[in-house]
Structure to design on (572 residues):
């Protein structure tokens, strides 16, 4: 799961619960930042082996994929390729057929990898003959430019465009009355508060904003941090990530996909430095952020002029999705594929925490891949295959922006036919027993009835997304399928306690605060493998249900995603 996601309970409730419980000493060492030092809720069942063989298989896979040998499974590294080979072997043992390129297990995913060179980074604000140069990392960080090694914008006019949202259906246009040609667009992240969750999530995506300003002729972008943004992700953490490589998909001509060549420089500026940009204006950055959030801000030409520069090293790279196929039994439906997915990549090696610099990614997402492999095994070993064929895909490049799923959804390795549904599992935080499964995004399509029927069959409750405002539906691989018009669902860990006093939401919040994208997301966490096996059974049952139904899944009438993207699937 990429870093934008932050599903958290208020800190007070976590601390109160953690304090009320006995502590688990082996986890106390996980804490990275001093202000977040809450010990993990205790788990009396931790370490007990399940009597369910499915649970034991999932546990073994988590240990294999989150092993130090895999070096954190970063896209494009030998550790990732080792993990991919493990999954291919598991798919073969499960009884799947190879479903990748040329009759093999792998689908090639062409990428570009970019590395920022701070010696070429600059951001200068000029007003009335005076200039202020912002400090790299402390006050600003440019994003990589995938199209040229050295890029710059010199002394350009600046236009403030609020959230850079163009939403005529909602009566909102941040570009009304301004001309962006040859200028730098200065903007906040996010979208107005009055937008309902789905639309706010769609319009909050950085790619939508960059596409909007590029189409209107802007040559540069400054993304201004707000106090709210930095309460969720501190500037220090954002800025410290400047030396991490970033990636894009590569097209047949070797160019980056979704890179907007006309935008020379895109830079982030910290909330603390924001007022330097708004010098000479009437309102402070904080006042503008409040007004923008209320949705009644008008774009304006800024008094300052801006110079921006970035230097980037870009190289081609290749990674792979692992693809297994279970053929369907009905020749009439042989071209209608159900896709099961989980991302295999994680974030690799990083800053050491308590002497450990390997970010193993046990829950994010070795666990999801292990559940995927078990679901494949269950479907492949059933007496009879469903009518529709099923593809099982362990995806690359998720942490880099859903790249492997985007490539798969656009170029599925199938001879003919189409993808009719996606079932995705990502980072189920199964560290406290639950009675339910969360089905994120089910309300958008007929997959709602399908998942409820499957859950009834295996005897588990289905809960809606407990944190709809976090819009996880657009933040993991299922969204790459949604953008191609394919109905999708994201199955996640439950939230209803199975044992009194042990709240899965509290456990999940503890994980997000302490181990998410940190070295302590590793196989010694108290993962409830019986719940993982139940999730695998649900995935298999849902795949079976979709596979047997007379009609393929459909978007619901009037659904936002169906109206925006549904035509793409129909056009194929
Ligand atoms: Zn992640």
């Amino acid at each position: 799961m990429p870093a934008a996601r932050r599903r958290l309970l208020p800190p007070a409730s976590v601390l109160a619960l953690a304090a009320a419980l006995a502590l688990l000493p082996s986890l106390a060492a996980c804490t990275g930042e001093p202000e977040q030092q809450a010990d993990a809720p205790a788990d009396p069942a931790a370490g007990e082996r399940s009597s369910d063989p499915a649970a034991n298989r999932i546990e073994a896979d988590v240990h294999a994929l989150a092993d130090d040998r895999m070096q954190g499974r970063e896209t494009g590294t030998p550790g990732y390729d080792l993990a991919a080979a493990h999954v291919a072997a598991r798919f073969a043992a499960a009884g799947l057929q190879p479903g990748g390129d040329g009759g093999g297990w792998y689908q090639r995913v062409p990428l570009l990898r970019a590395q920022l060179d701070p010696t070429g980074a600059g951001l200068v604000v000029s007003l009335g003959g005076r200039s202020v140069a912002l400090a790299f990392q402390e006050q600003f960080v440019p994003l990589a430019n995938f199209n040229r090694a050295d890029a710059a914008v010199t002394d350009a006019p600046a236009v403030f465009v609020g959230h850079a949202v163009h939403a005529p259906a909602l009566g909102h246009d941040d570009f009304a009355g301004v001309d962006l040609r040859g200028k730098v667009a200065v903007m906040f992240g996010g979208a107005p508060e009055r937008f309902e969750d789905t639309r706010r999530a769609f319009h909050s995506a950085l790619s939508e904003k960059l596409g909007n300003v590029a189409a209107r002729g802007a040559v540069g972008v400054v993304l201004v941090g707000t106090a709210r943004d930095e309460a969720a992700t501190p500037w220090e953490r954002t800025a410290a990530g400047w030396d991490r490589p970033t990636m894009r998909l590569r097209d047949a001509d070797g160019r980056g996909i979704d890179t907007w060549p006309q935008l020379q420089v895109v830079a982030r500026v910290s909330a603390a430095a924001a007022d330097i940009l708004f010098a000479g204006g009437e309102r402070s950055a904080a006042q503008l952020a409040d007004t923008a959030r209320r949705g009644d801000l008008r774009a304006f030409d800024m008094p300052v002029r801006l110079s921006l520069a970035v230097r980037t090293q870009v190289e081609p790279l290749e990674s792979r999705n692992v693809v297994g196929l279970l053929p369907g039994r009905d020749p009439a439906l042989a071209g209608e594929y159900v896709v099961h997915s989980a991302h295999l990549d994680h974030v690799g090696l990083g800053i050491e925490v308590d002497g450990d610099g390997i970010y193993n990614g046990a829950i994010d997402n070795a666990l999801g891949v292990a559940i995927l492999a078990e679901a494949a095994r269950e479907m492949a070993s059933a007496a009879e295959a469903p009518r529709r064929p099923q593809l099982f895909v362990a995806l690359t490049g998720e942490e880099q922006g859903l790249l492997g799923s985007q490539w798969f959804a656009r170029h599925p390795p199938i001879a003919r036919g189409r993808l009719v549904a996606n079932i995705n599992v990502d980072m189920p935080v199964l560290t406290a027993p639950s009675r339910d499964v969360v089905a994120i995004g089910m309300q958008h399509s007929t997959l709602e009835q399908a998942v409820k029927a499957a859950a009834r069959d295996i005897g588990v409750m289905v809960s809606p997304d407990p944190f709809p405002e976090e819009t996880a539906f657009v933040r993991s691989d299922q969204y790459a399928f949604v953008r191609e018009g394919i109905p999708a669902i994201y199955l996640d860990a439950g939230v209803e306690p199975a044992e009194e006093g042990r709240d899965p939401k509290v456990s999940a919040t503890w994980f997000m605060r302490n181990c998410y994208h940190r070295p302590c997301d590793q196989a010694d966490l108290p993962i409830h493998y019986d719940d993982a096996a139940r999730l695998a059974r649900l995935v298999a049952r849902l795949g079976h249900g979709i596979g047997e139904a007379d009609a393929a899944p459909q978007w619901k009438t009037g659904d936002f995603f169906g109206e925006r993207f549904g035509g793409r699937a129909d056009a194929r």
Q: What stands out?
A: The chain is about 30% helix and 25% strand. Residues 4-8, 10-38 have pLDDT under 50 and may be disordered.
